[in-house]
Design a protein that fits this description.
Shape: globular
CATH topology of the largest domain: Rossmann fold
Strand content: 25-35%
CATH class of the largest domain: Alpha Beta
CATH architecture of the largest domain: 3-Layer(aba) Sandwich
CATH superfamily of the largest domain: P-loop containing nucleotide triphosphate hydrolases
Distance between the termini: 36 Å
Number of domains: 2
Mean pLDDT: 85
Structural class: alpha/beta
C-alpha cells in the first residue's frame, strides 16, 4: 500500500473535502469514518460492498468529527447518537481522476453556510499555531498504514458538477465517535420509469398498475435495493398539473419543487399514522408514503386507496408474497389487503459482471439450483477476473432486477380465504407473472451477473 506524501497532513476541512470528492468520483453510496483501536479508517460502500480507502492517525478523529458536526448543525458537546445533513457541490475534472485533491485547491463547496460556531471551529482547524503543532506531531509518526491512502482504480463518474445531499449519522464507540455519510446524488435519485432497467413486459405491467384511478402499489426488498428510487420514478410518471400529489417521507431524500412533500417528525408528534389521518383533507390524487411500519398507517393508506386515491409505499420484506404475510402479521384485515392492493414490486440491486475482464466460467451448481436453473441448462455464464477498470473486483456497476405481483381475482380469493402463503407463491409461479427469481435467472443465463451474486440476492 503506497504512502501518499501529500496526505501526510491535511486539515480537517481539506481531508473531508478529499473524502467527499473521491466518494463522488468512485460512485460511493455511503462513507464510513471509523475510529479503531490505533487508527482512523475510512471506507466507501460501492455497488453494495465496503472498500477501504484511507488509514489515518487516531488523533485526527476528534477534529474531523467536530468539523462534520459543525457543518451538519449537530450538538458539538454531546456524545449521544445524532443525525443531521448538509448539502454540497463538487466539480470533477478529467485531470483529477487519477489524483487526490490538492491541499491548495479545494473543489467541494458546502451549499449551506455553517453557523458562527462552525466558522470559529473552521478557523481553529485551518490556520495558525494549532495547525503547525498538529502537523509536527503527525509528521513525527512512523511511516505505516496510519498515513496510507488505499487506492482502487475503477470506473468513475464523468467530469462535471455534482450536487449531493449528505445524510449524517454520528454514533459513539469505545474508541471515539463513528460517522456514516449517505450520499444522495440528485442525478442518481431521479431516474425515469423506463430507465430502471425493467423488461418490456414488466414495464408495461408496472404502468398498468400505477395508471389506474385508485389502488395501492407497494415496493419491497432489503435496505439499499432501490425502493425509494422506484417510488420517485413512479411519481415522475404520474405528476402533471391536473393532479395533486402529496408525499410523507422520513427523510425527504429528493426535493421535487412541484410536489407537496412532508418530512415526518416523530419527535414533534408527526408520524406516518398522524399524517395519514389528516392527508385526505388536502384533497390528494396521489399519496406516496415513505414506509409502512405499523397497522394504523397500513389501514389508513389502504382505505385511502379504496376511496379513489392512488397510493404508493414501501415495505421491508424478502419477497412479494412475503409482503402480504408482513401486512397480515401487522393485523391488517385480509379483505383490505386483497382489494386495496393493485400489485407488489419485488426488487434487488445486483452487481454486474465487468465487461472488460469477463470470461466464461463454470458456476457453482448449488448457486444455480438456488435461483432455479436446472443442471445442464445452457447459458452464457460469465465472471470477471479483475482489472483496472473494475478495481480488481470483477464487477462494475449494478443493475435492477424486478418481479411484479399483479393482484387478480384468484389471489384475492386466496388471501380472503386464509390460504397459506405457500399456496399464493405456487399460484404466482404457475401464472404468467414474472417472479424475481425468474428474472434474476435470466440475467445469469445472459451473462449479465454471476450465479453466486444472484444466489446471494434471492
Amino acid at each position: 500500500m503506497p504512502t501518499q506524501p501529500h496526505l501526510k497532513y491535511l486539515t480537517p476541512e481539506k481531508f473531508l473535502n478529499t473524502i467527499l470528492e473521491e466518494a463522488v468520483r468512485d460512485r460511493a453510496s455511503d462513507v464510513h469514518i471509523e475510529p479503531l483501536v490505533d487508527e482512523l479508517r475510512v471506507r466507501f460502500r460501492i455497488d453494495g460492498y465496503l472498500q477501504e480507502r484511507y488509514h489515518r492517525p487516531l488523533m485526527e478523529i476528534e477534529p474531523l468529527v467536530t468539523r462534520i458536526k459543525a457543518i451538519s448543525d449537530l450538538d458539538l458537546a454531546t456524545r449521544l447518537p445524532q443525525d443531521g445533513h448538509f448539502e454540497f457541490s463538487v466539480e470533477l475534472s478529467e485531470s483529477a481522476k487519477n489524483n487526490t485533491q490538492e491541499a491548495t485547491q479545494p473543489v467541494v463547496e458546502m451549499r449551506e453556510p455553517p453557523s458562527r460556531l462552525a466558522d470559529a471551529f473552521s478557523s481553529l482547524f485551518s490556520t495558525g499555531k494549532q495547525e503547525d503543532e498538529l502537523e509536527q506531531i503527525v509528521s513525527s509518526q512512523p511511516d505505516k498504514k496510519d498515513v496510507t491512502e488505499i487506492k482502487g482504480t475503477q470506473k468513475t463518474r464523468p467530469a462535471g458538477v455534482y450536487v449531493l445531499n449528505v445524510r449524517v449519522s454520528v454514533f459513539p464507540t469505545v474508541y471515539g465517535e463513528a460517522v456514516v455519510f449517505r450520499l444522495l446524488n440528485r442525478s442518481d435519485m431521479l431516474i425515469s420509469l423506463s430507465g430502471l432497467g425493467m423488461e418490456a413486459s414488466d414495464l408495461a405491467a408496472m404502468r398498468d398498475l400505477i395508471t389506474r384511478t385508485y389502488g395501492m402499489v407497494l415496493t419491497t426488498g432489503p435496505s439499499g435495493s432501490g425502493k425509494t428510487t422506484t417510488l420517485y420514478a413512479i411519481l415522475q410518471e404520474l405528476k402533471n398539473k391536473e393532479k395533486n400529489i402529496i408525499t410523507l417521507e422520513d427523510p425527504v431524500e429528493f426535493y421535487f419543487g412541484d410536489i407537496r412533500q412532508t418530512q415526518i417528525r416523530p419527535e414533534q408528534g408527526l408520524t406516518y399514522a398522524v399524517g395519514m389521518r389528516s392527508v385526505l383533507r388536502q384533497d390528494p390524487d396521489v399519496i406516496m408514503i415513505g414506509e409502512i411500519r405499523d397497522r394504523e398507517t397500513a389501514e389508513h393508506a389502504m382505505r385511502a386507496s379504496l376511496v379513489g386515491r392512488m397510493v404508493g409505499s414501501t415495505v421491508h420484506s424478502n419477497t412479494a408474497v412475503g409482503t402480504i404475510a408482513r401486512l397480515i402479521d401487522m393485523n391488517v384485515e385480509r379483505s383490505l389487503i386483497a382489494f386495496a392492493l393493485n400489485g407488489i414490486i419485488d426488487q434487488r440491486l445486483v452487481r454486474k459482471v465487468c465487461d472488460v475482464c469477463a470470461a466464461s466460467y463454470a458456476p457453482d451448481p448449488a448457486a444455480l439450483r438456488r435461483i432455479g436453473i436446472a443442471d445442464g441448462m445452457k447459458g452464457t455464464f460469465r465472471k470477471g477476473s479483475g482489472c483496472a477498470e473494475c478495481g480488481s473486483t470483477g464487477f462494475n456497476g449494478r443493475t435492477g432486477v424486478f418481479g411484479i405481483l399483479v393482484m387478480d381475482d384468484e389471489l384475492q380469493s386466496l388471501i380472503v380465504e386464509r390460504s397459506p402463503m405457500r399456496a399464493l407463491q405456487e399460484y404466482m409461479e404457475k401464472s404468467d407473472m414474472a417472479t424475481l427469481r425468474q428474472r434474476i435467472a435470466e440475467k445469469v443465463l445472459a451473462g449479465v451477473i454471476t450465479a453466486e451474486e444472484a444466489a446471494r440476492a434471492v
